Amino acid sequence: MSRVYNFSAGPSMLPLEVLEKAASEMTDYNGTGQSVMEMSHRSKAFKPIMEKTEALVRELMNVPENYKVLFLQGGASLQFAMVPLNLKKNGKAAYVNTGVWAEKAIKEAGKWMEVDVIASSKDSNYRMIPDVGTISGDYDYAHITLNNTIMGTKWAKIPETGSIPLVADISSCVLSEPLDVSKFGILYAGAQKNLAPAGVTLVIIREDLITDTPVENTPAMLRYDTHVKEGSMYNTPPCYTIYVMGLVLEWIQKNGGAEGMAKRNTEKASMLYDYLDASPYYAATAENGSRSLMNIPFVTKETDPEKADVINKKFVAEAEKAGLVNLAGHRLVGGMRASIYNAMPLEGVKALIAFMEKFAKENA
Ligand code: PMP
Q1: Do 335 and 299 meet the contact criterion of CB atoms below 8 Å apart?
Q2: Which of 51, 68, 146, 177 is the most exposed place for a label (fewest CB within 10 A)?
Q3: Which residues face 187 on adjacent strands?
Q4: pLDDT of 209-240, one tens digit each?
Q5: How many whole angstroms separate alpha carbon 72 and alpha carbon 179?
Q6: Could you count the other beta carbons within 10 Å of the beta carbon of residue 220?
Q7: Is the CB of 77 under 6 A from ligand 1?
Q8: Would the CB of 75 count as within 6 Å of ligand 1?
């Protein structure tokens, strides 16, 4: 059986090497006679897996000493609530609305905070990242979504926030290129795009933000200090997912770390954007200067919505037959979307472009 090129926005492709290694260790990890799936999280065999995974996060993301690395559950969506619950002091937060996930974060924060949406790209259908300049004010924190998975936009420059802690959702761009962790108070990412299968959320938090006075009656599981005190083992962590994350991080390390990923991802994304920009048949939807390296939504130039819908469906169905799967755009954007995370090889992008060219010729 041959493998397809999977352009899903997440869960998404994992490096084949990682899957093969996990398969080879499936029934007997490292001579223990057990699968990692079967191990106690407090066992002698599992502890080094956890330690190695954290050490690799620290090394590859260049995490400063004064930050904690946590492996939590509940996805990035739970961070939409944990951030306000734990960072609330005066009760006001600044958010930038750059798309669907940012909107969800804003809505959740609004349950506990007075939320100032200081900038929004909603009027442009979220095709670009608004210019916010320097963020200032009496905010407990400021929040951005660094890469917008659905709209395919990315912050090209991290905003300055002075002493206001900057919190960023990096779910769909974590380790896709170097990132200066020291500019942030909290970074969080659901793992199921660039790091691992679904089930674990990576949180990197500056120590001064770990409070023992969160919002009153915050459940223990939703307090960062709970997880910091227990080394992400307050309850049973998603052991197997953390193990696969360790394997993925080793693969990233072997392939040049964050710089290596940036080189690889820039080459893939540039190839696809260059093709789209030159095409008489297709167009990229995100504006130049705000374009994501990871998620590339595109449409055909058909202007009649009904005809466009028929063409899009045909594109997705024929692509699937050609072994290029999950190319349907998000229902809110329409068209198509190619998510080309770290594990997508250059050959996958080349195969997509070759298919697009053929499809355009046959359907123009
Ligand atoms: N934020 C972003 C930017 C995302 O892309 C997603 C998932 N696609 C989420 C948050 C939600 O993540 P989860 O499913 O891990 O809660």
Answers
A1: yes
A2: 51
A3: 168, 204
A4: 999 999 999 999 999 999 999 999 999 999 99
A5: 21
A6: 11
A7: yes
A8: yes
Long-range contacts of 173-176 (CB under 8 A, 24+ apart): 173/146, 173/147, 173/292, 173/293, 173/294, 174/202, 175/60, 175/61, 175/249, 175/252, 175/258, 175/261, 175/342, 176/147, 176/258, 176/261, 176/262, 176/265, 176/293, 176/294, 176/341, 176/342
Token code pair at residue 30: 């490292």
Fold that domain 257-363 belongs to in CATH:
Aspartate Aminotransferase, domain 1 (3.90.1150)
Q: What is the pLDDT of residue 331?
A: 83
Task: Find the 152 Cα to ligand 1 centroid distance in Å.
Answer: 13
For residue range 35-61, what is the model confidence (pLDDT) as tens digits? 999 999 999 999 999 999 999 999 999
Residue 1 has a pLDDT of 62
In the chain, where are the structural domains located?
16-254, 257-363
Q: Which CATH architecture has domain 16-254?
A: 3-Layer(aba) Sandwich (3.40)
If you take atom 9 of ligand 1, which residue's CA is the nearest one? 76
Q: Which residues participate in catalysis according to the annotation?
A: 101, 169, 193
At 95-112, the pLDDT tens digits run 999 999 999 999 999 999
Give the pLDDT confidence score for residue 322 in this predicted structure: 97
CA 302 – ligand 1 centroid, Å: 30
Mutate to test the pocket of ligand 1, among 129, 145, 154, 171 (most ligand atoms within 8 A of CB): 171
What is the pairing mode between strands 201-206 and 282-284? Answer: unpaired
Indicate if 257-363 has the same CATH topology as 16-254.
Answer: no
Please tell me the predicted confidence (pLDDT) of residue 112. 98
For residue 348, pLDDT beyond 90:
yes
Question: Is the bond preceding residue 11 a cis peptide, omega within 30 degrees?
Answer: yes
Q: Which tokens hold the place of 185?
A: 């108070």
Q: Is the CB of 145 under 6 A from ligand 1?
A: yes
